[in-house]
């Protein structure tokens, strides 16, 4: 039995956390939920581009079966 997380997730986040093999932790780091050392060297605009990349990947994966 899995415990429900104490923090609420968006439906998109739930979809990916329940997906096996998806690098969910890494994507959450990129979303700013915890510090990712590789992002510290990026400028704000680079971080934004990286985040958009991830969101694009997610929406593409969500739309495919």
TrEMBL record:
Pfam families in alphabetical order: YhfG
Compositional bias annotation for Polar residues: 7-17
Chain positions covered by the region annotation Disordered: 1-21
InterPro entries membership: YhfG
Taxonomic superkingdom: Bacteria
Protein name: Uncharacterized protein
Organism for this UniProt entry: Marinomonas polaris DSM 16579
Lineage per the UniProt record: Bacteria, Pseudomonadati, Pseudomonadota, Gammaproteobacteria, Oceanospirillales
């Amino acid at each position: 039995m899995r415990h429900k997380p104490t923090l609420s997730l968006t439906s998109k986040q739930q979809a990916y956390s329940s997906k096996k093999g998806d690098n969910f932790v890494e994507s959450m780091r990129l979303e700013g939920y915890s510090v990712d050392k590789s992002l510290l060297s990026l400028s704000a605009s680079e971080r934004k581009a990286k985040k958009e990349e991830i969101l694009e990947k997610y929406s593409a994966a969500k739309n495919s079966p």
